[in-house]
Design a protein that fits this description.
Length: 483
């Protein structure tokens, strides 16, 4: 089989991965029809929006890619069955969150959406179909998918048209905020599979724009496991540097200097050594917990404990920052106004899943603070949904997500810009590294705040001297000189 034989792709799941990934495939392979389907009608409607600023995912450059391909060979639709039936390759790119109840709750992946997709593919596919795991999955999930598909395959020989399937693993390594660049210039494409013909069919699609030496072929299980461990290694670096940041703060060292010094060793490398409020995002925590679950399942408790500590350290970093704000502001923040700059889990995305802002904000609200939140890409409704607390509400402690909450005098409101957020504030806490926060003119804005006022820079992006010159106090993550 060569790439010409893949004429029609269906991708199930129009989320942060399915939407942009398929847009780039369609852009780069104009001869292939690509249909991205989702059960969520509002999401599909947003992908079809004429006004490209209203696409459901914010990613620099995505609007231009969609503009070029949409309507030509890129389609977003809710007609799941029809798109599967027409496809010779189906990507499964649905959510795989952590299970919240039952066996493995809190750690194992909830595979109900993946299973539902497999059943739907088994039912609706026609002829020969290559099924590609794009979602991040526990190792050996392909076995489950194959078993569901093979029941349809054998049925097909007796009743109705013949169907046959191949399953591949092709995990996605894009990072939000840089998704388009990551998709257009990937470090590597990983394809795991048993059938060489199917592997090569997928490889030749990527081969249209990815250099051949960057397309790695492995067996199915290596591919599935590589995705989980890649995320675990990345997250581990962040917990490592955050642990060093805490040590820097008490010893007078500066974590940026230490990061530079250790990162200059080519064996360590410079990337992913930025200390901050801890990692967020939909995947690091869930993928590590999934890895931990698998290790315990396969009788490797020491390995499980090792990886679990990466998450423990991350939670500690977030609690530590909230505690530090309270302690610095004379031990109480009840009734004090604190401006929160940034709610997205990182800059250049509107994604707030597992954002460190969420747990830090809970802790500050529990201490009775009045929070003024501003993020350039996150609207009030999304903050409400992420926190589970409506704007301006003083919550009954029992309604709080944190059931240990004793008092809940705190409340929050959403602001439209930095100036509004800073007005009358006792402190500013920078949680996302948006460029506009790095460029704040402190001389101009400091007079808006109630003195003595503090800037807590959990991303270390601001100009320390300008803050001091404006008469404000400063705390920066990992900066021993400032403590
Ligand atoms: P998402 O929640 O943004 O999107 C998943 C979509 O799948 C949703 O819109 C949902 O409605 C849809 N869906 C679920 N079941 C369906 C069904 N049966 N039929 C049709 N649509 C269905 O999730 P995401 O962030 O795109 O992540 C998808 C997968 O990719 C996850 O496994 C994740 O771990 C992995 N991943 C995510 C990222 C990232 O940056 N977000 C990066 C790499 C890998
Ligand atoms: C991460 C991986 O980088 C992707 O390769 C992977 O595909 C993806 O997870 C996934 O599987 O979902 P993403 O979560 O989008 O991508 O973003 P990252 O850039 O990895 O940042 C994750 C978190 O770590 C953010 O909260 C970020 O602020 C934080 N981070 C990152 C740091 O605190 N310091 C750093 O040096 C780097």
């Amino acid at each position: 089989m060569n790439n010409n034989e893949i004429k029609n792709i269906c991708c199930i799941g129009a989320g942060y991965v399915g939407g942009p990934t398929m847009a780039v495939i369609a852009d780069r392979c104009p001869d292939i029809q690509v249909t991205v389907v989702d059960l969520n009608e509002a999401r599909i409607q947003a992908w079809n929006e004429k006004d490209l600023r209203k696409l459901p995912v914010y990613e620099p450059g995505l609007d231009q890619v969609v503009k070029r391909a949409r309507g030509r060979n890129l389609h977003y639709s809710t007609e799941v069955d029809a798109a599967i039936a027409a496809a010779d390759m189906v990507f499964i790119s649905v959510n795989t969150p952590t299970k919240n109840k039952g066996i493995g709750a809190g750690k194992a992946s909830d595979l109900r959406w993946v299973e539902a997709c497999s059943r739907q593919v088994a039912k609706c596919a026609r002829g020969h179909t290559i099924v590609v795991e794009k979602s991040t999955l526990p190792v050996r999930t392909a076995e489950v998918i194959k078993s569901i598909l093979s029941s349809a395959q054998s049925e097909g020989t007796n009743q109705g048209p013949h169907k046959s399937f191949e399953v591949l693993s092709n995990p996605e390594f894009l990072a939000e905020g840089t998704a388009i660049n990551d998709l257009e210039n990937p470090d590597r494409i990983l394809i795991g599979g048993e059938s060489e013909i199917a592997v090569e069919a997928l490889a030749s699609i990527y081969g249209q724009w990815v250099p051949s030496e960057r397309i790695l072929r492995t067996n199915l299980w290596s591919s599935e496991l590589s995705k989980l461990t890649a995320n675990a290694f990345l997250a581990q670096r962040i917990s490592s540097i955050n642990s060093v940041a805490a040590l820097c703060e008490v010893t007078g060292a500066d974590v940026r200097e230490v990061a530079k010094a250790i990162g200059s060793d080519s064996r360590i490398g410079t990337k992913f050594l930025r200390s901050g409020p801890g990692f967020g995002g939909s995947c690091f925590k869930k993928d590590i917990l999934n890895l931990v679950y698998l290790c315990r399942h396969f009788g490797l408790p020491e390995v499980a404990d090792y990886w679990e500590n990466v998450v423990t350290l991350n939670n500690w970093q977030q609690e530590r920052i909230a505690r530090l704000v309270v302690q610095t502001l004379y031990g109480t923040i009840a009734g004090k106004k604190i401006a929160i700059l940034g709610f997205a889990f990182k800059a250049n995305t509107n994604d707030t899943r597992e954002s460190p802002a969420i747990s830090i904000i809970y802790n500050l609200l529990e201490e009775g603070a009045k929070l003024a939140i501003f993020d350039p890409k996150v609207k009030k409704e999304q903050i409400e949904a992420s926190l589970g607390i409506m704007e301006e509400t003083q919550l009954d402690p029992l309604q709080s997500k944190n059931i240990n909450s004793i008092s809940f005098e705190g409340k929050w409101e959403s602001k439209n810009n930095i100036v509004e957020a800073l007005e009358g504030a006792d402190a500013v806490l920078i949680l996302t590294e948006w460029e506009e926060f790095a460029e704040i003119c402190w001389e101009k804005l400091a007079p808006l705040m109630r003195k003595p006022a503090w800037v807590f820079d959990a991303r270390a992006i601001s100009n320390v001297q300008a803050i001091k010159d404006a008469g404000l106090n400063i705390w920066r993550v990992g900066d021993g000189a400032e403590q």
